[in-house]
Amino acid sequence: MENICLENIQTCVLLANLSSSSKNPESEALFVTLGIRMAEILGLDQPDPEDSEVLRETKCRVWWTLFMADRWSSVGRNLRRAMPDFNQETPLPMDEDYFHHLDIDQGTDSVEASPPRPRTLGLWAYNIMLAKQLGPIRDLNKQWNQEGISEDYVMQRVAHLAKDLQLWEASLPEEKKATDENLQAHSAKKLGGPFLAIHTGYHQHFVLLLFRFLDLNRAQTPKTIEYAELCKYHARSISQLVKLSRQVPNCAMVFGGVGYMTVASSAVLLHTLIFGQQDDTADIRAKLESNYETIYALQKCWPSIQNSVSRQICVSGPFLTSAGKTSRAVPKDLCEARGNANLQVRQVDGEVFGRTPLAAG
Q: Where does it mainly reside (predicted)?
């Protein structure tokens, strides 16, 4: 701890990931906070012109990795964030392909001859921008449980947050949008996993925002029905992207967050299978089967995913029996788990949810 250096900050990130996978979110939060304080002491948020381009970008990526980790781990334990909400003065990470091809042997003596920092932002940069939406979604889900909150307020906030997510997707450069051509291009550069990850995260944010509209005991209006269908669409999209990550070369997503996003997708798919009146039952079952293949494969690296799987079995079990259609509401405990928008492995009073990765690609 006394040796404050970049390598020890990176070690804190690794230990935080290890703590998360070992179902120890308290230790994770401590390691994240320790890494943040070290980074602040070293001033990683301010580029040093004396550094080589490789070192400057490495510091930048470590800083934003801590930013992301702080957002998720603080939500997981209901802690105050240790880092500012969003500091536009700190450069966002550059294009990953450019970064991976920088001259690692470049010394400080050659800084003047270095090419200028590229203006093209990387996938990690857009993931950071997406993470800005998590806090407001989490706050709304917490407010949703409070008595006296008006339906008009809820609908206005949902519409506003949905618009923000759509604007994020629209802001993506053409080469980073979710198309088959772009997937193949990123796969060729061995960046298919990070490419799929940001789009899977986008759909996950929508699921977190809209899952309560699946509750058929709510008053049904054209807008609430639209939101429920939109939630199902995004859950299906998660399943499809996760399946692609297993099928397309150089597109594997092996971080723990994939498991938790897949569990969330499966919860919506199960609800649709049980209570829906659709003609695509076979497709839903196929997506569920694919989801569970992913979940159980990821448990080899992230044992903590089992918590979310057990949670889903406990919640869904009563609805899968022959008499399971006695209630058409989203179970309250599932609402509470999803409503915390907590992508941090945790179990507090029986409440479990998932998380996203701490390390940048």
A: nucleus
Domain boundaries, given as residue ranges, for the chain: 6-113, 137-353
Q: What is the distance between the alpha carbons of residues 226 and 230, in angstroms, rounded to a whole number?
A: 6
d(CA 32, CA 23): 15
pLDDT of residue 356: 33
DSSP state of 110: G
> Which position has the token pair 């008053």?
219
pLDDT tens string 123-143: 999 999 998 888 889 889 888
pTM (2 d.p.): 0.82
* Helical (H) or strand (E) element with 353: strand 351-353
Cβ-proximal residues to 138 (8 Å cutoff; 6+ apart), any chain = 75, 208, 340, 341, 342
pLDDT in tens, 95-130: 999 998 887 765 555 445 455 555 689 999 999 999
Hey, CA dihedral for 227, 232, 235, 239, is it positive or negative? negative
175/181 Cα distance (integer angstroms): 9
- How confident is the model over 274-297, as pLDDT tens digits? 887 667 888 999 999 999 888 888
CA dihedral (212, 214, 215, 218) in degrees, to 10, reads: 90
Residue-level length of the chain: 361
The Cα 231–Cα 211 span in angstroms is 6
CA distance 68 to 70: 5
